[in-house]
Design brief:
Elements (H helix, E strand, L loop, with lengths): L3 E8 L3 E3 L12 H11 L2 E7 H7 L13 H12 L1 E5 L11 E4 L4 H10 L3 E5 L1 H9 L5 E7 L7 E2 L9 E8 L5 E7 L2
Parallel strand pairs: 1-6, 1-7, 3-4, 3-6, 4-5
Antiparallel strand pairs: 2-8, 7-10, 9-10
């Protein structure tokens, strides 16, 4: 059975992007990118909302960009090999292999996916993750806390939700990012 993991970059004040949608203050550099790549090897499926998918689809062709460092090429290959489900009522077609569109987020379908999966699953994007959190589907939270306070934007956690957590791991990166991994206490 796979775990459902919510993993994203967040500012110190809890935003995955600022009011203008920027998140460059938390963008990974080589050290943290290699760490993300290593964790991503255990992921079998990414669950995306449309906007997050449109950001991440870059990785479908990132390896073809001239002069890319090896760690970028490595992550691109990992991303390309992973299944992707995009939840969207407006997206007409996908621009990546191993990707399908679902029109609605169905918690029971995600429960079934978790039960059938040998690898873990991530839910990516704060709006889609909010639905999974409210449905009690998230088993683990992985936060990459960037060294910035942005004062507003898209929040990492939805309002009105309470979850008890147990710290499993932490790591400090030289760029000031702090990785925190929590399991949901059941």
């Amino acid at each position: 059975m796979g775990k459902l993991i919510y993993s994203m970059i967040t500012s110190l004040d809890g935003y995955v992007s600022d009011r203008e949608g920027n998140f460059g203050w938390g963008a990974p550099e080589e050290e943290s990118h290699e760490f993300v790549s290593e964790l991503s090897r255990g992921i079998g499926t990414y669950l995306y909302g449309r906007r997050m998918y449109e950001t991440m689809v870059y990785w479908e062709t990132a390896h073809t960009v001239p002069d890319q460092p090896q760690y970028i090429k490595d992550y691109a290959r990992i991303w390309q090999a992973t299944e992707k489900i995009v939840y969207s009522t407006t997206l007409r077609q996908v621009a990546s292999e191993r990707t399908r569109i679902e029109r609605t987020f169905d918690p029971d379908a995600v429960r079934a996916l978790k039960a059938e999966s040998e690898l873990d699953i991530t839910v990516d994007g704060p709006h889609l993750a909010a639905q999974a959190i409210r449905a009690g589907l998230v088993d683990e939270y992985q936060l990459y806390v960037g060294p910035a306070i942005v004062g507003g934007g898209n929040r990492f956690f939805p309002d009105g939700v309470t979850v008890d957590l147990e710290l499993l791991d932490e790591r400090h990166f030289t760029n000031g990012v702090l990785y925190l991994r929590y399991a949901v206490s059941r």
